[in-house]
Amino acid sequence: MSQQSHFFEDVYEVVKLIPKGRVTSYGAIAKYLGAAKSSRTVGYAMNAAHSLPDVPAQRVVNRNGLLTGKHHFATPTRMQELLEAEGVIVKNDQVIDFDVKFWDPMKELL
DNA sequence: GTGCTGACTGCAG
DNA sequence: ACTGCAGCCAGCA
After folding, report:
1. Does residue A25 lie within 7 Å of nucleic acid chain C, judged by its CB?
2. CATH number, domain containing residue A40
3. How far apart are CA A23 and CA A57, in angstroms?
4. pLDDT band at A110 (very low <50, low <70, confident <90, very high)
5. Which of A26, A71, A79, A82 is 20 to 30 A from A102, comparing alpha carbons?
6. Domains: count for chain A
7. Which residues lie below 8 Å from residue A82, measured CB to CB, with a gap of 6+?
8. CA of A23 to C1' of B3 (A)
């Protein structure tokens, strides 16, 4: 704590900026933060994001558009429900038109 | 203080 | 095309 890991904070900041009806990947966030190889840590940050209601973790999926983290929500279907409620169609734990719904912070935030 | 695990990803075999 | 391994950061035993 004394060193204050900005990593989590930065991850939350980016996730909060994800537009409604859009999704991104752990790797995209990690790369935006300058740590492309720390994608795992990004996912770990999402695990801790449960305490933060302003962090839409459901909009963060893996690079294949697969809801790998859905199992960490209150219910296995919670993540999909939240996404579909925002206009993101999910089929078989996979985001439809992922390439279209994909939101890249590197390009969007620039 | 040391070591393992995890919501990932890319390269090598 | 499929499987396996290594790298990154933070939390817990």
Report:
1. no
2. 1.10.10.10
3. 10
4. confident
5. A71
6. 1
7. A56, A58
8. 35
